[in-house]
Amino acid sequence: MELLSLLVGTFTLRPYVFVFLLAFLFCAQRLLGWRRTGLFFLVTWLTAFACEFSSIRTGVPFGWYFYTNSTTDQELFIFGVPFFDSLSFSFLLYASYCLALLFLLPARATDGAPPTHLLKRSTWPALLFQAEIRTAWPVLKMTVLFFAFIDIIIDPVALRGERWFLGKIYYYPDPGVYYGVPLANFVGWAVVGLIALSGYFLADRRLSPASRHTEGADTVMTGAVLLGVGLYYGVLAFNLGVTFWIGEYQLGMTGLLIFLPLTALLFLRLLGRLSPPSRVQTPAPDMQGEP
Q1: Which of 104, 173, 178, 114 is nearest to 140 (CA)?
Q2: Can you tell me the mean pLDDT for 82-89?
Q3: Count of domains in the chain?
């Protein structure tokens, strides 16, 4: 009964986390299918939990930080780590993965001039969900970059959780130079992304095609990829909204300026005026081909 009470408390205290988690499950199953979605979630959650478990005890890989344990009687903690916290990495990594796919997946060739009506679905590039591309080294690197990039917005506002409904749940004993966040924290996010996605890619290439999600070199999945990109920007908008709501205007404007160039590139890609690099088909480490 106590465990059930803590699970219910976790949900009621952090409903926005579970909204994003449900959005991830909906988006990911459309792109990956349920089997790969479950695998993506499990690998990412286990990696994030292991890294958080390590960091609050050894300082590796996020640097030293500590949870205040102020809500241990209200929500579920596992070996000192809030359950909701490690869950968040799964939908954030998936959203970052989709953003990388948008820029790096090849598009089916079309005749005529580049489209100019962005809101028309028919004008979006027909992204080909090819196995040799979706698990390639450039996709891995770009995903890790986007994954660490979004924490530039998330961590500073989470650190100020006592000023909004998150609550003061953790602190850094040695505050960092970026709005109180140490640079080691962003390195830690990159480490989590690199390990988790490398593990998922390794498994993905060993799974047989299970459905239309993974069969054929000409499988067009533009809409499914864009759902994941929408999740990325949904999380970004939520955190920026909270940032301005609590009066951290400088932090909020910093975030807007940081993401403005990326957003401009995204629109160029959707307009068909930005193409992926010509050489993307480089397998990620330990992934030398299908079995």
Answers
A1: 104
A2: 94
A3: 1
